[in-house]
Amino acid sequence: MEVINKKYNKKIDSPEKKYLNDHSCLLDIETTGFSRDYHQIYMIGLARMIDDSLDVTLLFAENPDEEKTVLEEFIKYSKGITDFITFNGLSFDFPFIKERMKHFGYEYDFKAYNHLDIYKECKCLKSFLKLNNLKQKTIESFLGLDRDDKYNGGELIEHYKIYCQCQDEECYNNLITHNLEDVKGMADILTILRYSSISKNIEKADANELSLDKDNNILLTLSLNTSLPKRFSISGSYYYIVFENDIVNIELRPTTDTLKYYLDDYKNYVYIENENAIIPKQLLDSQNKKYATKATKENCFLSAESTFLPAFNKKLFENEKLFTHSYNDKKCYIDISSHMEDMDYIRNYAINLIKHEI
């Protein structure tokens, strides 16, 4: 077995220091296949932050017979570690390690450790960050990170077989480079977790500026308590939101329309046919009585011409009047004509919109 040690100068920003502490370790394994019963682990990549240095250790089985030695060395290395950071490690790496330990007669309970699985934490990001997939290299690419590694783990299985047969130097370099960059890369992509925490932390955002443009669109600026590594945006028919560094620029596009507010207590009203209007029963007089019929759910409404924004979640707006185009219309709106320049109201609407969309 070969033990490869590398040191890299690395500064960790404050938001990521909570992950890379004195007792945490980055881990990535390489295997000869996906079956825990029939395939083997040929490399375990490990890394820890020591002061301002990322110390990487690769445990490399130079032939399949050294798998047990690799696992035993991993057990020694793990002493003092309480937290593991992986990419899909809870589904792949650690169940694989546990089964291979069992094969050699060792009991290994990976659930005894604290785990941060970056892949699992990033599942919510694919859609709004417009990622093609959630592979580690895809996230690295989104963050603008480059790597020398040209292969994926599946492709390198054949490289390992060739290396075991003839110690091919090119295959060896490809194997080491891939695992090394996977482990190092996990430290670099921890910043992606800042995106997954947006919906949790957005309520702490401060509103800096509110204005209306020439088209009566609402422009709001929020400031976040952390900086995002890369700009991104989300949009819909009535909003456009840009996240850049620690600033969120929001454009809300209200519409001016005539909509209907349907009354729940329709049984207390009558419908006046010649006026196409409703009035309370107690106001019915002799002049309009002949035109009056019982109000129904469908015709008991008040019309309002005003400025509206969608009520994207009815529960959030249960204390406000909800307007629609028709009785059966599922899309509801709120009247914001009196709130267009109300900083607190617009901030609350925008924050809830972001949480809803992200």
Write a structural description.
This protein is α+β, with helices and mostly antiparallel strands and 358 residues long. Among the domains are: 2-196, Ribonuclease H-like superfamily/Ribonuclease H (Nucleotidyltransferase, domain 5, 2-Layer Sandwich); 198-252, no CATH class. It is built from 12 helices and 17 strands. It has helices at 14-17, 67-77, 89-103, 118-122, 125-128, 136-142, 156-166, 169-188, 193-196, 198-201, 286-289, 343-357, and strands at residues 2-9, 24-31, 41-50, 53-60, 83-86, 114-117, 206-212, 218-223, 232-236, 239-244, 247-252, 255-262, 269-272, 277-280, 292-294, 301-310, 333-335. It has a 6-stranded mixed beta sheet. A 5-stranded antiparallel beta sheet has the order 7-8-11-10-9, covered by helices on one side. It has a 3-stranded antiparallel beta sheet with strand order 12-16-17, with no helix packed on it. Strand 9 (232-236) and strand 10 (239-244) form a beta hairpin. Helix 7 (156-166) crosses helix 8 (169-188). It is elongated. The two termini are 46 Å apart. The model has no long low-confidence stretch (mean pLDDT 94).
